[in-house]
Amino acid sequence: MNKQPELNERSLTLLKNLVEHYIQDGQPVGSRTLAKDAALSLSPATIRNVMADLEELGLVNSPHTSAGRVPTASGYRLFIDSLLTVDALTDVEVSRLQETLAADTGSRQAVLNRASQMLAELTRMAGVVTLPKRERVDLSHIEFVPLSEQRILVILVTNEQEVHNKIIHTARRFSAAELQQAANFLNARYTGRSLSEVRSAVLQELQKTREQVNQQMLDVVSMAQTAFTDTETDEDDYLLTGETNLMGLSDLADMTQLRALFEAFNQKRTLIHLLDQCLTARGVQIFIGEESGYHPLDGCSLVTAPYALGNQAVGVLGVIGPTRMDYRQVIAYVDVTAKLLSAALNSHEQTP
Amino acid sequence: MNKQPELNERSLTLLKNLVEHYIQDGQPVGSRTLAKDAALSLSPATIRNVMADLEELGLVNSPHTSAGRVPTASGYRLFIDSLLTVDALTDVEVSRLQETLAADTGSRQAVLNRASQMLAELTRMAGVVTLPKRERVDLSHIEFVPLSEQRILVILVTNEQEVHNKIIHTARRFSAAELQQAANFLNARYTGRSLSEVRSAVLQELQKTREQVNQQMLDVVSMAQTAFTDTETDEDDYLLTGETNLMGLSDLADMTQLRALFEAFNQKRTLIHLLDQCLTARGVQIFIGEESGYHPLDGCSLVTAPYALGNQAVGVLGVIGPTRMDYRQVIAYVDVTAKLLSAALNSHEQTP
DNA sequence: CTTAGCACTCTAACTGATAGAGTGCCAATC
DNA sequence: GATTGGCACTCTATCAGTTAGAGTGCTAAG
């Protein structure tokens, strides 16, 4: 393999044109078509030679002997990374989107949901928004409510607005007064501190108290310990809208494939894992086809961008659609939606 | 129209055979096929005459001139109401299902979800379970947590286990002590009584108190009033599983139809309304095809049965699938699942 | 390096022929 | 009068054969 084909300007331009054509029509594009529209006037024959090179590099593909060429995953990748120019949206459009998103009503969840719907509607594909990771969880208030014999309902208010409920079973019965006392103790002592701080503080308390052999105190502390464990791990979830847009896109007409995709949407677990990987990326990130290594997404691409709360990226939003999608448009929409969502959440945070 | 064709025994048997054949093969069934298997030995010609009668009555249908007959919605209806014999499941099967359902772990929601999954798995179609209507909602505990200036988090525990959160805005600022006092007052006075009782009692209190012109008390009561409104209307929802089973059923291969169906699943509102209608029915109820008057369900049937908590039917479960489904089997499964679910919920209730 | 030309391949679409299934109707039969 | 056998007719699915079009690969010439 001494022959290492160069990717000169011309080849790249041709690849770009090919991808753009294919994205528009969904048909394999032949040399004649490319010869016609390119600013560089070349004969079909020349183009065929270039195509042969591109095919050798694995950037394009022929479905059969005499059909035009189709970009491969690598072809899309090169196109997106080096050839694609994304136009910013007009100010008018941006502010229209902002209005939709920030329509003042609603909880944080409602805003996230609107973002997902907006993406789905704009792109006519599936929109997805992960729920924000609560990086710092501050204890606002804790309350114990006795249910039956040894069951106690723990109500945990964090970050001034999020409420968690948890039923715990205790070794012995606690009186209402005891519970009240325990809650008062914890509230007075730990309000405003982060949950992890509280957890370790309570643990220390446990050791200190053990020395003093105060049985009641020890009970309370060990109960609190139970209450604080695993409170954060609940909501690893996402909001998916417009999945049905994916039906009826000719690219995903394969029923079995579509079914696998929808089952994956229901499972959630693997997809959320994939989305989490996008959290650390700076801006828009794209998985093309099989790149994700996640089988149900074969034939699909995922375009994501993280959104922030404060200065910290806490969640990811994006669009799922067929590999043959209008990346230029989708990237622009995903990008601007992420920014608008960050803005909306932060302003919402300041004036609750 | 003086000719009113009789539906004699023979015609009914033939209809029954026809429906059963069609359910199995999905192919229009012709006179010869019917002539072969029927216990009553008739020639195809005779059967053709009967078929002509059935067609005139709108019970069967020919897709085109020379194809066999297919049952219409009315045909299915007659079949289900008068001709179908449902075998009870074997004890072994029932107890196997019971084990799956009652696998001791989990909240009530988890049990409902397992029921839905069980239905989906058994029938290979979509299973649906509505969340129970809380007919009687008893106050177990109420708590007020001050958030910021005039925002108060109300935590309402009902029926010993269900927790509702609600943020209310108040006219003036309340101190933590005041809130504590208010909660104590309400808990002491109203625990164990139904929410609607509490609501009206509080209202009376409001009037009585107004005469005594005790401002603080009045504030508390009016706040409680706010807290108790609209607490019940939240969860009209259902658990749907196995929707993806519907893809790939040849009967629903039509993309646009399938898409409408899935969109309806997402909307939830109309479907829940339809399901609510089944709540009052005694046992298994069936909507065939367009009977529901609900367009996205065209071509689908809905088989439901209510389930009970105590002696009161509080929810509905069922199966959604193509009109051409094995009703005998599905009805048996839906029926037994409803009974098992009722049993599981009630035993769960008694030994929490 | 580029281009024109040519042979070749593959697909999509149309055609016609055929077999099979099923009906409707009529006349014969029980 | 109900039932049946026979026959003509209709509709569908399928297969093979044909054609047109698009596109490629290769080669030789500019």
Task: Please tell me about this protein's structure.
The structure is a homodimer of 352-residue chains. The first copy, chain A, has 352 residues and is an alpha+beta fold. Helix content of chain A is 48%, strand content 18%. Chain A contains twelve helices and ten strands. The longest helix of chain A has 24 residues, at 327-350. Chain A is elongated. Residues 1-5 of chain A have low confidence and may be disordered. Chain A binds a DNA duplex (30 and 30 nucleotides) through helix 3.
- Structural class label of chain A: alpha+beta
Biggest β-sheet: strands ordered side by side in the sheet of chain A: 7-3-10-9-8
Low-confidence stretches of chain A: 1-5
List the helices and strands of chain A in order. Answer: HHHEEHHHEEEEHHHEHHEEEH
Largest interface: A-B, 29 and 29 residues
Average pLDDT, all residues of chain A: 85
- The span between the termini of chain A is 65 Å
Count of helical segments of chain A?
Answer: 12
Task: Give the overall shape of chain A.
Answer: elongated
Oligomer: homodimer
Can you summarize the main beta sheet of chain A?
Answer: 5 strands, antiparallel
The tally of strands of chain A reads 10
